[in-house]
Structure formats: structure tokens, C-alpha cells
Amino acid sequence: GGLIERTDTENVNGWPGFAKLPILGRLFSDKKVDHQEDEVLIVLTPHIVRMPYWTRANLRPLLSGSEANPQVTREHELRTPQPEPQPPAQPPRQQPPSTSPTAATSGASAANTGAVAKIRFEPQTLTLKAGQTATMGVVVENVNDLYSIPFLLQYDPKVISVEEVQHGGFLSNGGAQEISIVSQPFKDKGQYIISATRPPSTPGVSGSGTLLGLVVKAVGPGTSPLSIVQVNAKDSQQKAIPLVTSEATLQVQP
């Protein structure tokens, strides 16, 4: 496209007084008309913005640490803390039984302190026939004050396709509160961006449960991993929550 501008200019040269005489004025004057045309062209060059392509090396689960102590740790490198050696047991003393609920709460908190927060699929292996659909759960474990969790799925688009994202119930406290789920599929790339967020001005949710449900469809025969390659979970104070990710394996039969 573009813009076109046309300008016409008329100049009259002649003897003063004589140039304005009727008919005879043409003998004492000269008229010149200039035509000028300007054109401005506008050229648009389209560019295709593509999502990054993830290789198998990007699909391995890892723990990113925390904001205060960032570190990268693979899931197979995590080790359960070894208990410290205990001193020889002393003869028990007779004490009255305690009915305080504080002791039970402290014990439960201590038990959860060493637990690693994870996000995984349920089931982790699934076999379908071409054209069939099934629902897989996205499960979180041992999270504390989880408020929002955007993540990126990766799979083989020639084998499976993620058709729909469903509520899982964990972030909504079993359906008592509405949560916001935003999703953007890139089926030709085998990627799916999903974000789940609790209502504003509400605390996060702690514990374990089903975060979302994924409706997957078998496209063609083969085996495809279903992986969470990026995750950015945050608590109600907008602090990052480190999560260990894993992947599921889906096999499609003819």
C-alpha cells in the first residue's frame, strides 16, 4: 500500500497592465502549469514468531532450589536425609499422658519438613488405541501455600494430542472456590501452556492432590513422553516454590 499526493501549480508571467487585457493580454503574457505527483510506498514484512523447540535434554526433571539458595538438582540426585545417631535410650519415666493438640500438630509439621514438593502425572504410563481419549491427572505433592502455577507441557504431536484442560479440585479447596485456568495450545509443536491461579486476596493451598485433568487423544501409533518442561509455582506472597517434575509415557497402538 501507499500514499499518493498530486500538486498542480499555475504561474503567469507578463507585462503589468497589458497582461490583463481581454484577448490581447495573451500577447503580453505567458502561462505555465506544473504538475507534480509524489508517492509514498509502505512495505510490511511479516515475521513468524515460533515457540522454542525443546529437546530430550530439556525434559529431565530437576529441582531449581529457592530464591535464597538457587541450585539445580536432578530428581535421581535427591537423597533422604540420614537420621542423626541417637544417644543410648534412658529408662522411661512415668509421666501423665498429654492431651494437648499442639504436640500432634508439631509432629505432623516435623514429618512434612523433609518432604520434597513434586508435580507429576497420574497415571505415569498409559496405553491407548488410535482415536481413543483418556483423562490424566496432574498431581502435586507436599506443596506449601501454593497460590499459582503456570507450566509448559511437551509431547509428540504425531502420537498424542492434549485436547482439553479440566479442573482438578486441589487449588479450589475441593470446589469451594473458583480458580482461574488459562491455557494456550500449540498442537503443531506438541506444546501446551497452562496456568492455574487461586482467587485474589486468598491464601494458598498446602498438601497433596489433583491439580488439573488433561484430556489426551491418541493420534497415531508410537510412544510419546508427556513432560512438564517449565514450571513457575508461587505462593500467596509471590515467592517461588521449587518443584521436582517428572514425565509420563503414553503408548498408542494401531
UniProtKB/TrEMBL annotation:
Region (Disordered): 67-111
Pfam short name (any one): Cohesin
Composition bias, Pro residues: 82-99
Biased composition (Low complexity): 100-111
GO molecular function, one term: carbohydrate binding
Family annotation (InterPro entries): CBM2/CBM3_carb-bd_dom_sf, Cohesin_dom, T2SS/T3SS_dom
Annotated Cohesin domain residues: 127-218
GO BP: any one term: protein secretion
Gene3D superfamilies membership: 2.60.40.680
Domain Type II/III secretion system secretin-like: 1-50
Similarity annotation: Belongs to the bacterial secretin family.
Protein's name according to its UniProt entry: Cohesin domain-containing protein
